[in-house]
Amino acid sequence: MTFRQFAYRNVVRNSRIYGAFFMASFFSVAVFFIYSMLMFHPDIEQGILGEASLIGMVGAEIVLVLFTLFFLYYSMSAFLEARSHEFAILLHLGMEKRQMNKLVFLETMIIGSGSIFVGIIFGFSFSKFFFMIVREILHLDDLPLYVSWEPFLLTIGVFTSAFVVISFISVYFTRERKLRDLLKGSDYLNSVSTYSKTRAVFGITLILSTYVLSFIVAKTSLIELSILIPFLATFGTYYFFSDSLPCFLDKARGKRKFHWQRYRLLSLAEQTHIMMDNVKMFFVVTMVSTMAFLSVGALATMSSYTINYDRLNPLGLVYKGDVDNPYERNHIASLRIELEEKGLSYHLSRFVVIKQTSSYTHNEVEVFRESDMNVLLSSYSYPLLDMAPGEAVFIPYSEESLNKLKNKVVHTVLEENSIPITIDSVYPKIVFPGSIVSVNSIVISDEDFVKLIKPITDKNVDQPIYHLFTFYIPQWMETKDIGKDINTLEAAQYFYKKNKFSPFYFENAGLNYSYILATYSLFTLVGVLVATVFLLAAGSFVYFKLHASLEREKRKFDVLKRMGLTDTELKKLVNRHLFPQFFLPWGVAMMHSLFAFLMVQGILKDIANISIAKEVVLSFSFFVLIQVVYFYLIRWRYISHIRS
After folding, report:
1. How far apart (Å, rounded) are the C-alpha atoms in residues 347 and 474?
2. If you compute the radius of gyration of the chain from its CA atoms, what whole number of angstroms results?
């Protein structure tokens, strides 16, 4: 038998151990290959997002490669640890360390070559299916399956390099082990570790500080503070597992009335040992799970905004310009012609908006005419306004403002023209998009509006008088091709041009929605696959660690069974042994994610006034269900091995 045959048979004999490693590796290869097929596709940049779709694919590739390198290294380390007793026997029989390193390298490359081959076949088989999805996402006419050497060469090159690097690194970090330590196998890990009370308090303090900062950002929208949160959470999580948790368990063991109770005596002693020996594993699983939660949570956030877009943007087209805007007549005429040519029904409303200073707040107020507003309200089939002179109504800029202004009564004077008004109600429906009206917008009667001869006198206020044209279009999702020339001109003049702002602003809800929907769908495609890799890896870390110490655990339970441990008691002990390893990191990750989404919710309320609570709850429930199923699957395999 040659040395290569010996390496091959080692892999085959240890197929139970290497099976999970192979599955996770081949799945990573398959996902990477699919993204490579999309990235090199000649038609991928022709979609509505253009080069942004290509950037998304490249970003996903980079994340997958970096994470896969770390994942492969950790997996290889766990499996080499599980086979340390076997390596000790080979060294004792006369194998040189150089030969053992070569053996590990050959075994790694055999597994790597197999996972690359199967992963590419699997990825290519499902490429057409993903192309069909991406074609709809990017609004392409066609995205045919193609054959090119570039995706194959990139995937083979990247993952072959990854397996070579990982095999050398794994060998390098295990070559200093002494023979007597290798003979102990996983018992080599049973070193006595200590914790620091100072670091224990520091870890709890950092995590609490993270949560407090998230709460502050959610309430105040001070986004600058959010920069500190990832660093505090990372260091706090590590110190929590390395010192805070062992300190807590040590205190619990000191309470004899609590500690010396049937299963607690064994389970607390075992959990203390597990926590001290698996700090890095718990830390990694927590951070990886947090990234998976945040990825899916971000998709849920975008989904909420996409679903509520028509409610937040009730108008199809909006055109806003200065009173001396030279493009106004031609632009409005061209928009009407395009809508009629496309066969879209619409209702056009024209507003003259005058800004005034309120004596109540001393801030600027945008004033709308009652008759102009009723023209728009009639197109919505909303209740019309009927106001007497001196009366006014708030225009809501968000659903939250409806509740704030519902019972508010303001007596004020429009200072420039000395017109006293009383604002005692808010219109009960969202009429304008939040990007059009200011937070201080009111409607007054026609009799009062004709008295507004003088606009606001503050020189720092832009557009003291402006014209607003609104197109209410029932089929607003079909307007994405309307006003392309206006969009092009606006893009050229939107920011400063000869020290003056662009004289007009144009908003196309259909076009904006198509961009948002395409972006959301692209992120969904990228995010779900990346999150799946993260989740698979997070569960695999625990699985690999259990396999590394499986023989030692079997010997321990064999002793307990000889002492009279029943099958029911065995299951209870196994539950207490496995439960913290699976659910403690996920619990911490969920707490991190919960406060992160609390912060995001606070920011979104100010920007788009949407709630993501429902989406976050559904996402977390889905993750909990996955983890429970995975826990019982591993528990079943674990108990069956211990019983054998």
Report:
1. 9
2. 32
Angle at 415 between CA 412 and CA 421, to 5 degrees: 30
Helices (H) and strands (E) in the chain, counts: 24, 9
Site of tokens 């709809």? 136
- Is the pLDDT confidence value at 595 over 60? yes
Structure tokens at 280: 């890095």
Report how far apart, in Å, the C-alpha atoms of 206 and of each of 197, 588, 597 are. 14, 13, 18
Residue listed under structure tokens 């001290």: 276
Q: Which residues contact 172 (CB under 8 A, 6 or more apart)?
A: none
Tell me which H or E stretch contains 252.
Answer: helix 245-254
CA–CA gap between residue 101 and residue 174 (Å, rounded): 9
Q: With the CA atoms of 565, 567, 568 and 574 taken in that order, what torsion angle do they form, in degrees rounded to the nearest 10?
A: 80
Question: What value does the mean pLDDT of the chain take?
Answer: 76
Instruction: Name the 3-class secondary structure at 166.
Output: helix
| Ordered DSSP codes for 491-553 | HHHSS-SSSS--SEEEEEHHHHHHHHHHHHHHHHHHHHHHHHHHHHHHHHHHHHHHHHTHHHH
Is the pTM for the entire model greater than 0.90? no
Q: What is the pLDDT of residue 555?
A: 73
What is the spatial distance between Cα 598 and Cα 212, in angstroms, rounded to a whole number? 11
CB 233 within 8 A of CB 207: yes
Burial of 621 per CB tally in 10 Å (0-12, 13-18, 19+)? exposed
Q: Which residues pair with 221 in a beta bridge?
A: none
| CA–CA gap between residue 185 and residue 172 (Å, rounded) | 18
Q: Which helix (H) or strand (E) covers residue 256, if one does? A: helix 256-259
Model confidence pLDDT, tens digit, residues 227-273: 888 888 889 888 888 888 878 777 766 665 555 555 555 555 566 66
The Cα-based distances of 458 to 368, 415, 416, 462 in angstroms read 19, 12, 10, 9
pLDDT at site 469: 92
* Signed CA dihedral, 132, 134, 140, 143: sign only: negative
C-alpha neighbours within 13 Å on the C-beta side of residue 552? 20
Phi, psi dihedrals of residue 549, rounded to the nearest 5°: -115, 20
Count of CB atoms situated within 10 Å of the CB of 261: 11
Q: What is the pLDDT of residue 443?
A: 92
User: 146 with 135: CB under 8 angstroms?
Assistant: no
Token pair in block for residue 383: 């209740």
136: tokens are 């709809």
- Cα–Cα dist 193/183, whole Å: 21
Is residue 218 within a helix (H) or strand (E), and if so which, with residue range?
helix 197-220
At 497, is the pLDDT very low, low, confident or very high (cuts 50, 70, 90)? very low
Contacts of 631 (CB under 8 A, 6+ apart): 578, 579, 582, 583
Residues 6+ apart with CB under 8 A from 173: 77
Q: Which two tokens stand for residue 544?
A: 């690999």
pLDDT tens digit sequence for 94-105? 777 778 778 878
